[in-house]
Amino acid sequence: MRTWTSAAVPEIAGPGERGPLHVYDTATRSVRPVHPESGHARLYVCGITPYDATHMGHAATYVTFDLLIRAWLDAGLEVTYVQNVTDVDEPLLERAERDGVEWQDLATGQIALFHEDMEALNVLAPQHYVGAIEGIPDDVTAVQRLLAAGTAYSLPSEDGTGEDVYLDLSTQPTFGDVSGWTRDQMLEVFAERGGDPDRPGKRDRLDPLLWRAHREGEPHWPGESLGEGRPGWHIECTTIALRYLGETFDIQGGGTDLIFPHHEMSAVQSRALTGQAFASAYVHQAMVGLDGEKMSKSKGNLVIVSALRRDGVDPMAIRLALLGQHYRQPWDWTPQILQDAVDRLAAWRAVAGGTVSTADGTTGVGPEASVIGTVRAALADDLDSPTALRVVDEWVGAGAPGDRAAVGAAVDALLGVRL
Ligand code: 5CA
Ligand code: ZN
Fold first, then answer.
1. Residue 58 Cα, ligand 1 centroid: separation in angstroms?
2. What fold, for 313-326+334-415?
3. Among 192, 340, 378, 413, which is disulfide-ready with 387 (CB 3.0 to 4.6 Å)?
4. What is the per-residue pLDDT across 2-31, written as a single tens digit (0 to 9) for each?
């Protein structure tokens, strides 16, 4: 599928040595360096289910991983970035049914709007933007292989016309390694996050669905020996990551709502297929809420990026509002957060461009180098964007001494904020 268009990342001078990027890995519960020695970093971030417009929670997730990519690029790494789009799944089909539209049309429209939002927010595009539907042939092959290996099993559908396929978790000793959750914790959320713990005949209530046999009125694709049907949700991300990133890659990303079951299941399915670890680290954006509740399309308590844009809010102010919060800290969107970001953007823009001589007349190795170095250090330290923004605030507050254009380029390259 077509991806969106990235704006160029300005070149910025590097003030000497800097440490590798460190981020918090959910699986090991520790802040770890993620700087592949090969010089090539690989990232998979779970994309949208395109049934409603991009809200601040989605935007926070994609801006966080954009920050991570910019830190990698700045450290001289080549980056391969893959993102999926869940262009067929239960919530999409349900919303289309509710609104009396074709699910394909709903998806196409929402994907286009998402791309516009990403471009407006200056989020770098993935090299591979892949629809679930495009991945179906790989899903079929993967599920056939799991059945042949005895790590998956079939159950007849209710009307007996087809067979659903599940992964047999009892064959997978690494199950649980991503979330580190207890079985009780897992069972608590499994049903509300797309699982079917009460399906009769399952060997384990948590076994994830790999292939769903065709039911009357549901979209379906040829599954070769599996028969007509469609893939389960988690296998979509497993096979897209395997195809475009290889058996093991650096980071699997998304919001914390995906830790279980989605990232746990994607990883264990991959392990069952390859015998290798899936991602080396699992990085998650904390939930963004509104009035104390998780912002979600299903609840409808949304602040929509495109609506704010339509109201004339500068997308760079939206980006600054998001960057003002640390990605590991859950937070609630408020109008005040946006107003503060609008003010901050205006203050930064007021000093953008040109060079202001410092007292000793030096430029080039002057105050701008220390600002850029401190921003880099904050970002390398678990993507500490709130600190990075304060560093720029202090420099602006001190009269923005030195090479202002160099700081502007660094703010664009590292923070993705265009002044
Ligand atoms: N298509 C699947 C992933 S394969 C999906 O979860 N889609 S989504 O549209 O529901 O979410 C898209 C991304 O935004 C996911 O990474 C999800 O974890 C993240 N996300 C959703 N709601 C929030 C929120 N309130 N705060 C932060 N991130 C969120
Ligand atoms: Zn996913």
1. 6
2. Four Helix Bundle (Hemerythrin (Met), subunit A) (1.20.120)
3. 378
4. 999 999 999 987 655 567 999 999 999 999
